[in-house]
């Protein structure tokens, strides 16, 4: 097996192993907070992220051991394979951004203008990413082993779009850091959770884009070996984000004071069953 094949296959197996391991250790929470709950948008997004990510990685490994195993591979096969990985990545990225947007919509008390702004931003990002993705697949260059040898500039454009989108979501989250104060300087648990999860998701996504993008142009072989990891990371991030919100919902007691008139519920916000209301000092 040639070095590019070996590095690529090892990376894919490792990424799949991490995804399976994360699924196993979080399954008790998944069973309690996902499988035992009524079918709705939250449940669908979780299952899509968890199991589409796993199916995508398993399919990727199967392709590497089958059609992509020969030394000489048709260019069209390479382009289809790359397109499959790109679609998987974009699907998981936008699912994560949808979850973050819905959390913000709840945090802003389901404000109609904020909802329209979030919808416009994610719709614009999807359209621009689709255009960049199509142009990337049509222009990318491979060698006979399906290793990327020429990365078009559209890939960098996509990274910039994704980064700016997450900067926007993080700034919107920080602006509401004082929402739901529970006496003095203590924040409501849901706001603490959103700030904490928002911070590490922003950090991980930024680090991911900052790492993958330069390597795509400087060391294409290394970038090819790293490609499965974004899919695994996005699947893990989104699933844990949803589980954290669901677990908080289960353990947060009903509010007894005037500070928080209605407990913010991630599920009910998405399903439009209740309105989240806070007292804010903004």
TrEMBL record:
Limits of the DUF6533 domain: 10-53
Top-level taxon in the UniProt lineage: Eukaryota
Transmembrane segments: 48-73, 79-102, 114-136, 156-174, 195-215, 221-243
InterPro entries noted in UniProt: DUF6533
Keyword NADP: no
Keywords, alphabetical: Membrane, Transmembrane, Transmembrane helix
Keyword Ribosomal protein among record annotations: no
Protein name: DUF6533 domain-containing protein
Originating species: Lyophyllum shimeji (Hon-shimeji)
């Amino acid at each position: 097996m040639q070095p590019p094949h070996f590095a690529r296959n090892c990376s894919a197996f490792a990424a799949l192993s991490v995804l399976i391991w994360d699924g196993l250790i979080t399954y008790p929470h998944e069973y309690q907070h996902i499988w035992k709950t009524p079918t709705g948008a939250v449940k669908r997004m979780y299952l899509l992220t968890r199991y589409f990510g796993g199916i995508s990685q398993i399919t990727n490994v199967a392709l590497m051991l089958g059609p992509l195993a020969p030394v000489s591979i048709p260019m069209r096969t390479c382009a289809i394979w790359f397109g499959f990985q790109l679609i998987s990545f974009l699907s998981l990225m936008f699912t994560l951004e949808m979850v973050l947007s819905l959390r913000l919509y709840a945090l802003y008390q389901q404000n109609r203008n904020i909802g329209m702004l979030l919808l416009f931003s994610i719709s614009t990002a999807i359209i621009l990413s689709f255009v960049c993705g199509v142009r990337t697949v049509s222009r990318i260059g491979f060698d006979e082993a399906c290793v990327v040898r020429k990365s078009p500039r559209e890939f960098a454009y996509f990274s910039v779009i994704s980064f700016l989108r997450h900067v926007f979501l993080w700034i919107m989250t920080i602006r509401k850091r004082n929402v739901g104060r529970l006496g003095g300087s203590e924040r409501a648990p849901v706001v603490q959770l959103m700030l904490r999860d928002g911070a590490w998701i922003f950090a991980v996504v930024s680090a991911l884009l900052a790492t993958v993008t330069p390597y795509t142009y400087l060391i294409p072989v290394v970038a090819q070996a790293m490609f499965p990891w974004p899919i695994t990371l996005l699947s893990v991030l989104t699933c844990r984000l949803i589980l954290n919100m669901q677990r908080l919902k289960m353990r947060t007691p009903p509010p007894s004071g005037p500070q928080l008139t209605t407990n913010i519920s991630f599920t009910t916000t998405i399903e439009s069953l209740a309105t989240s209301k806070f007292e804010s000092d903004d």
